[in-house]
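2024-03-11 09:14:02 INFO worker-7 job=invfold-0412 stage=load source=structure_tokens
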């Protein structure tokens, strides 16, 4: 098979690295790629958002499977367009990817299908949101509705911080149109974990649970960002807890999306907080996590191509995802943090 990976970061490098181990793969392409990826794959400088050129490139090179790394092209509908052109691609369609593309849709969906999450309110009017904050001074989380590269969820300890966060999102438009709506929700306490599952619309295959570091400064003092490192497996995740997450979060999510006429194929990635009241969803992502992918894939024994093809074809019920039984995986930035601490 000829396989194309769309993206240019560490996540995509990890995907290419894992694909290179597959007996199904003849050649790997990556757009736009990076210097490290270029040692393994043929790279072409095409923007991840230039769907027309990506389709032309995939057709010209007779690509058998395309894997999308970043969330933006998925939310924009790249899977829909590839499928219209008869090209096999791994990832959720546009309407399914709205789970990540809109925090408002996500929260309303969880409320409708009784999936445990934080209490929340949504606002399109700045003055009404500001008034709400005056009566809910914190700790609280203010979130931009749309995509913000992992920076749109701002944790606030008091009214001053939450007011600044609201101004940043709705007045200053730091995240552009993503700030036209905001979600204001209670701040959950506990350990945060990442669960990634491969989906074929009806079935789920679970990858190894992981944990990432979101804050940009030492001692978790800075604001959230896309991720400052990750490791897997995480010791706070027990078999009993994972079973609870499967039955109360992951399975109801897949069934709910099916009921909404948005069948979900691809990676369903839930960021969860393990609270005293049980696991609660912080957010969904519609793609492989970054930096989680960099630590989960090295722990996997299964052939990635075989599993992705089963997801696309609706045959995941025949797949058993296998992980290494011993060891722990750390991504580069997490390793550097640990080295500094030592």
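2024-03-11 09:14:09 INFO worker-7 stage=emit residues=342
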């Amino acid at each position: 098979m000829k396989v194309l990976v769309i993206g240019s970061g560490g996540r995509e490098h990890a995907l290419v690295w894992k694909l290179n181990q597959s007996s199904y793969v003849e050649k790997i392409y990556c757009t736009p790629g990076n210097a490290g990826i270029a040692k393994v794959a043929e790279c072409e400088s095409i923007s991840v958002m230039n769907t027309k050129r990506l389709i032309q490139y995939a057709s010209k090179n007779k690509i058998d499977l395309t894997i999308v790394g970043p969330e933006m092209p998925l939310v924009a509908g790249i899977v829909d367009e590839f499928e219209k052109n008869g090209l096999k691609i791994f990832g959720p369609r546009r309407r399914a990817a709205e789970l990540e593309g809109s925090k408002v849709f996500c929260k309303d969906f969880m409320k409708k299908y009784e999936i445990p999450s934080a209490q929340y309110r949504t606002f399109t009017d700045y003055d009404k949101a500001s008034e709400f904050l005056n009566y809910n001074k914190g700790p609280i989380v203010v979130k931009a509705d749309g995509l913000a590269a992992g920076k749109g969820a701002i944790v606030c300890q008091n009214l001053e911080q939450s007011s600044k966060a609201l101004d940043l999102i709705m007045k200053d438009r730091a995240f552009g149109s993503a700030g036209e709506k905001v979600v204001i929700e209670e701040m959950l306490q506990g350990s945060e974990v990442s669960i990634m599952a491969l989906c074929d619309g009806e079935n789920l295959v679970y990858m190894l649970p992981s944990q990432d570091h979101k804050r940009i400064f030492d001692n978790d003092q800075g604001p959230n960002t896309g991720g400052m490192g990750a490791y897997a497996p995480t010791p706070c995740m027990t078999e009993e807890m994972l079973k609870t997450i499967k039955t109360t979060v992951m399975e109801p999510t897949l069934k709910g999306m099916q009921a909404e006429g948005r069948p979900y194929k691809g990676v369903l990635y839930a960021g969860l907080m393990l609270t005293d009241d049980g696991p609660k969803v912080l957010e969904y992502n519609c793609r492989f996590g970054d930096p989680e992918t960099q630590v989960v894939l090295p722990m996997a024994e299964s052939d990635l191509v075989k599993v992705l093809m089963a997801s696309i074809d609706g045959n995941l019920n025949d797949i058993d995802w296998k992980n290494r039984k011993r060891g722990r995986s750390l991504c580069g930035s997490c390793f550097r943090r640990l080295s500094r601490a030592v």
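2024-03-11 09:14:09 INFO worker-7 stage=report msg="The longest strand covers residues 265-275."
2024-03-11 09:14:10 INFO worker-7 job finished
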